[in-house]
């Protein structure tokens, strides 16, 4: 019974925090449901501006002006609204507002008195977090290996597992001494740009079916000064040879959508609401796009060339047996790599 | 993978602030198999199905039991490298004591501070003498 009430309340808050007009500072009464009060209102020291209420959300109280105080106030708020990673959320928002990439700066400047503008910015960003917008979109950037990349919804936010895929591919690029790599499904450009940064001689062609992804890859390439060595192609990978690719490769890499359709339902709201689901959805067996990539790669790889894919841990076996069914493609799964959590995460497939 | 981490250690481990180069011949070298690494990301599906910002790395040196933590950057890979650098520093201090790179650097900086002070004192003395000579006081 109690559980059901809580669930109901949460759902209600959930839908409220998602309506466009929702504003915690304008509508504190929303949270009194079934006699249960949810503290959507911050500290009593938080109040609407000069009593005219026009600029709600900005902070004018006398006390909570220091970094540590605003941190505490929003931390409590995130906790009571069941925001995931409450601590990291407010830490990253404050660090970003202070112009730093490192959350340790938040504690270094614990006693710093914030300006009104800074406080206003923190409040605005925190309200976005209440709507479950991922932190990476809120601060509009994230780090991948040593690089800071621009992030913008709905382009897929790079995951840390993929940082290891780059290591695996770099090894192969060095071993083969190849001067060109092809990437399918480039998203924000994380993989391609990392490769280009590590290998000054390399040229990369990157393909994505999303216009936003292509645009973001181009922007990130520009910011990291590798545009001249990166060609971005806006095209969807199907069973057929992509028109725009005219040469063959020794190394192809991809982190394609690989989630099983059934697993999509239970994704965090951050992902489900804001990230491009086309970047994640691999169909019934998670192999929908992977199969197309393999079909196409078979025609695009030189003999002894390799394609490196990030996959679901259930995939290596499925891919191995699928490739056996189609010997004409001349592709063999040669090696499986584990990620840092010891899960089978990357496959190396060679063209014989 | 391993050699990349080692290469990174060289850069991260000994930040070069001055012309001073510490003798690092005694600095311990990490053996990956002697390390136990843990991540907040831990269990669960991982990969595309998870979007988390926490990427704290806990690294334990099994032979000594020394533990370090790093969540300094927003990239897990960078945190792994930094954790290794931190661990090397910590082991170096533990094993080599006064011969550790940190101790060497501290001695150098203390000495530099003293030298600087001595020079300053000397300079102000010379200045005073000069003023006296030229009847400027
Ligand atoms: C999981 S994201 C990977 C992004 C980036 N490489 C990374 O690792 O962060 C997958 C990307 O594949 C793109 N995509 C999905 N299906 C595709 C298809 N059939 N052809 C081309 N791109 C596709 C999506 O737009 C998305 O940007």
Automatic annotation (TrEMBL), chain A:
EC number assigned by the record: 2.1.1.297
Q: Which Pfam families does the record match to this protein?
A: MTS, PrmC_N
Superkingdom, natural source: Eukaryota
* The species this protein was found in: Photinus pyralis (Common eastern firefly)
Reaction catalysed? L-glutaminyl-[peptide chain release factor] + S-adenosyl-L-methionine = N(5)-methyl-L-glutaminyl-[peptide chain release factor] + S-adenosyl-L-homocysteine + H(+)
Q: Which residues form the Methyltransferase small domain?
A: 168-258
Specify the enzyme's EC class, one word.
transferase
Domain Release factor glutamine methyltransferase N-terminal per the UniProt entry, residue ranges? 69-139
The UniProt keywords, alphabetically, are: Methyltransferase, S-adenosyl-L-methionine, Transferase
What would be one Gene Ontology cellular-component term for the protein?
Answer: mitochondrion
Show the InterPro entries listed in the entry: DNA_methylase_N6_adenine_CS, HemK-like, N5-glutamine_MTase, PrmC_N, RF_methyltr_PrmC, SAM-dependent_MTases_sf, Small_mtfrase_dom
Gene3D superfamilies on file: DNA helicase RuvA subunit, C-terminal domain, Vaccinia Virus protein VP39
Q: Which GO terms describe its biological process?
A: methylation
User: Which GO terms of the molecular function aspect are on file?
Assistant: nucleic acid binding; peptide chain release factor N(5)-glutamine methyltransferase activity
The protein's name in its UniProt record: peptide chain release factor N(5)-glutamine methyltransferase
TrEMBL record, chain B:
**Where does it localize?**
Mitochondrion
Report the Pfam families cross-referenced here: RF-1
Going by the UniProt record, its keywords in alphabetical order are: Coiled coil, Mitochondrion, Transit peptide
- Coiled-coil annotation reads 91-118
**Chain ranges of the Prokaryotic-type class I peptide chain release factors domain:** 32-121
The record, for InterPro entries, names:
Mito_Transl_Release_Factor, Pep_chain_release_fac_I, Pep_chain_release_fac_I_sf
Q: Which GO terms describe its cellular component?
A: mitochondrion
Q: Which domain of life is it from?
A: Eukaryota
The record's comment on protein family reads: Belongs to the prokaryotic/mitochondrial release factor family.
Q: What is this protein called?
A: Prokaryotic-type class I peptide chain release factors domain-containing protein
